[in-house]
């Protein structure tokens, strides 16, 4: 009798547990890949997009936002598997490989992660047995998956499926033909522009200068700007004067605004370095210490007051950067042989 009672009790408990589990929504039914965020005071679309590493356009699309104004307490989707429609990607773009001593079809194929057969298809008039130093091979490589990608070095690279920077609130593009970057870089800059506009509504739009050509490659007069990760931007002028690229000094340089956008982008962890004239670094350093940063905290952020030749800080001196700043972003997860 006792074993029968225990068996019945066990069956009943198992049934109740199973029934209770069935009533709970599964992770898939709740779309576990979707991340929500509750807006706090001081948040704006740009700052939220920067925090979660997404585009402002994606946040607006996921939440069907028609206005840029956000009310504290609003719950927003900030990560989603839902794809936001973007311009159709360009076809795979060519890379030219110049034959060096010791090169073979096999070594070139291994370097670019393609097959020997593909190299033969792209270069039908080239004999693999008669390669000559200086001879060129035409390759069709990254980008066939539709993702934008920075390829190779910033001063000797290419850009695949480049995304054109657009004029958005807080940011004006000077020449779209010279302002293509990777999707990741474009999103970071657009989000920082939205953030600046939300915090300083009366500030003039920051001006985007040279980035890269649509397919990357040499952009005169620059040595870099070849792979969609280098951007020239104007400084903010005191008094909200719209100046574009104009020589700055301690009297005209708006330390508060310039410090905020530089520090905001550095805080994403995506910045490799930023070129700022050493004299203007002094203004930034003095402003940063006035709002509570210590010299130790700033030692890895800005060269000043150390040597202008040192490379231990993110913000560095380079001649010709008293009328604009130059930012280089790190290699991203979709970039190819990037360095």
Q: How does this structure look, described?
A:
The chain has 339 residues and is of the alpha+beta class. Helices cover 29% and strands 17% of the residues. It contains nine helices and 14 strands. A four-stranded mixed sheet has the order 11-14-12-13, with helices on one face. Helix 2 (45-52) runs antiparallel to helix 6, helix 6 (183-199) runs antiparallel to helix 7 and helix 7 crosses helix 8 (278-290). The longest helix has 22 residues, at 2-23. The radius of gyration is 26 Å and the shape is globular. Mean pLDDT is 85; it is low at 1-30 and 87-91.
Which short descriptors sum up this protein?
two-stranded antiparallel sheet, 14 strands, 9 helices, alpha+beta, four-stranded mixed sheet, globular
